[in-house]
Structure formats: C-alpha cells, structure tokens
Amino acid sequence: MATRGTNEEAFINSIVGPGTFFRGHVELRGLLRIDGDFSGSIRTDGRVIVGKSGRADCAIEAGTVVIGGLFRGEILAYEKVVLLSSCVVLGSVAAPRLIVEEGVLFSGRCRITGSAETLVTSAERGKRKKSLLLETVRRREHSAAARGSAERAVTADTVEPERMEPTLAGAGAGPKRDAEPWNG
Q1: Taking phi first (over 0 means left), then psi (-120 to 50 degrees means alpha), and beta for anything else, what does residue 21 get?
Q2: CA 146, CA 141: separation in Å to the nearest integer?
Q3: I want to staple 173 with a disulfide (CB 3.0 to 4.6 A). Which of 31, 81, 139, 169 is the partner?
C-alpha cells in the first residue's frame, strides 16, 4: 500500500468526534482521527490517530497509526506505529517501526519487521484473521446487548432474599429457611 505525500496528509479527512459512537467499516484515503468511540475496521493508505479521549475496538490497516487513548484489536501499519504515554493497547501490533513513549500500557503481541514488504505478505494471510476479529466484535456486542436486556428483566421482577435463621437444634445443625427466630 503506497503512502501519499505529507502535504496531503496534513488535513484530517474524517473524524469520529467526542461523544460519537461509530460502528462499521471505514475505507478512506488520508487521515482519520478518533476522539469518540469506534468499533469495526479501518483501512487507509494514510494515518489513523486515536486521540487521548478516543476508544477504538477494531482492526486497523494503515500507513501510520498513532494511539493516544484506549485501543483493543489489531494494528497493521506499513510505515510505523506510535504509542503515546497516555495510551492503553490490548491486542497485536505489526509494523516495520514501533515508537513507544514512557508510561504506555501494552498487553498483547508485537511484531516489528524492519520492512514493509514483509508485512504485505503477512497482510494477505491476516485478512482472514481480521474477518474473524470483526465477527468476534459483533458477537461480543450482541451478547452484551442480550445481557443488558436480561438484567433489566430480572431487576423488573422484585425478588425477596431468603431469610436464614439458626435452628432450634443448636450448633452444627446448619441454617433453616424461613424459621421463626428462637426467643429462648
């Protein structure tokens, strides 16, 4: 994937702003900045920036990726990945160069190749993995939505906790349910 000149990349083509939640697949030429919530996949020949307040749960394939917020997923960069001190990264990173500031929280796999050509062949093998990742994200969101509706249904029914009282038989006999307290 060829990259364009820095003059053209100086402009932000697309933004997911603060307070915005976007789910889906984004393909663009140029720069994408995420300051809100993004879930899905991104493909660009330019840059992807996840700002300090940004949260991304996705697969990214780009020339350069800069993470300043929370990121979970896969990054495949053809030039470099920059992890700023304010970021948390959970997932995998593959790039020719990796720049990590002090204070970064990273949990996952990292593959630094030194050349973009090695990544291109890996990218073709990784396309299947990306589709699996997207399916996993969809299932996670679906199950979270189902859990949320189930929790609302349970809290709608008033359930009284069972009373547990000691038995008259004394110690060692165990608790007895719904017993009258002993006033002995």
Answers
A1: beta
A2: 9
A3: 169
